[in-house]
TrEMBL record:
It is a multi-pass membrane protein. GO terms for molecular function: ABC-type transporter activity. This is Transport permease protein. PANTHER family: ABC-TYPE MULTIDRUG TRANSPORT SYSTEM, PERMEASE COMPONENT (PTHR43229:SF3), NODULATION PROTEIN J (PTHR43229). Residues 47-275 form the ABC transmembrane type-2 domain. Residues 1-24 have a biased composition (Polar residues). Residues 1-25 are annotated as: Disordered.
């Protein structure tokens, strides 16, 4: 089975939307039904499951087994620092990479066009895909937090944990918006994977979330401070710092992340395409 065929599961699966009902309760019922359906589609996608659930847990366990957990990274015990970096990877994989590629496949296979002609409100269809990927990222993160706490001695404090959840929420929203925006500039199914990977992995590795940027050129650090990856990681690191007391919200970093989210929302809503390229 080729990667393209795996990732096109959503585009080729026949789906009959739940009959539309009126009112807010009806809309919420439709949304819940679509989230259940898109979750089933996600679980049939081995590449998506690999990137969003399997690889993050594998990296968490592997790095903590192989590394001296007493060593400090950017002033944090390794398990605290490592969890922040892998959480960034989880959110980027689920809410940016998977969402952008799946949207391109659905659009180019004509699924989005067909869904738009059904009684299902288009906004419900799009929102269900965004929420499904967000829930996958949240589930994967909570699972890693539990393993890191139970096995590797992760330290958690109530107030900083609230700041961590806030950073996670802002990150999920920002990366989802950017994923939908990037889907608009990808022309074909064949180019979706290389383009999305090219936009994500260099930033992930250059942002210092997988290894400290000690000794890196200041220009690189300044540039990464303005990108959406490093501020997300720093906000999570601050919330996971055992020395932090009180509500450790990294307002400046979350502001940068929110600005990227607003830009992604504008671009996604302004240029979103339901029709395959070349369909006229």
């Amino acid at each position: 089975m080729t990667t393209a065929r795996v990732l096109s599961a959503d585009a080729t699966t026949t789906h009959q939307p739940t009959p539309q009902t009126s009112g807010r309760a009806g809309t919420m019922s439709l949304l819940a039904s679509e989230i259940v359906w898109s979750t089933k589609i996600f679980l049939r996608n081995p590449i998506g499951v690999l990137f969003a659930l399997v690889l993050p847990m594998f990296f968490l366990v592997l790095f903590n087994v192989l590394t001296d957990r007493g060593e400090l990274y950017d002033g944090l015990p390794f398990v605290q620092w490592n969890l922040a970096g892998i959480t960034v990877f989880v959110v980027a994989s689920s809410c940016f990479i998977n969402l952008a590629i799946a949207t391109v496949f659905s659009r180019e296979a004509g699924t989005l066009r067909r869904m738009r002609s059904t009684p299902l409100p288009p906004g419900v269809y799009v929102l269900s895909r965004v929420l499904t990927n967000s829930l996958v990222a949240l589930f994967s993160t909570l699972l890693m937090v539990f393993v890191a706490w139970a096995v590797f001695g992760l330290q958690l404090k109530p107030l900083p944990a609230i700041a961590g959840l806030l950073a996670l929420l802002v990150g999920v929203l920002a990366y989802s918006a950017l994923g939908m925006a990037v889907a608009n500039i990808v022309p074909t199914q064949e180019t979706s994977i290389p383009i999305v990977m090219f936009l994500s992995f260099p930033l992930l590795f250059a942002a210092g979330v997988f290894f400290p940027l000690e000794g890196a050129p200041q220009a690189l650090i300044t540039a990464m401070d303005l990108m959406p990856v490093r501020p997300f990681g720093m906000a999570l690191q601050q919330a996971l710092d055992p020395a932090t007391s009180g509500l450790a919200i990294a307002w400046q970093e979350l502001g940068v992340l929110a600005a990227w989210g607003l830009l992604g929302t504008f671009l996604a809503s302004r240029f979103f395409r339901w029709e395959p390229r070349g369909s006229g």
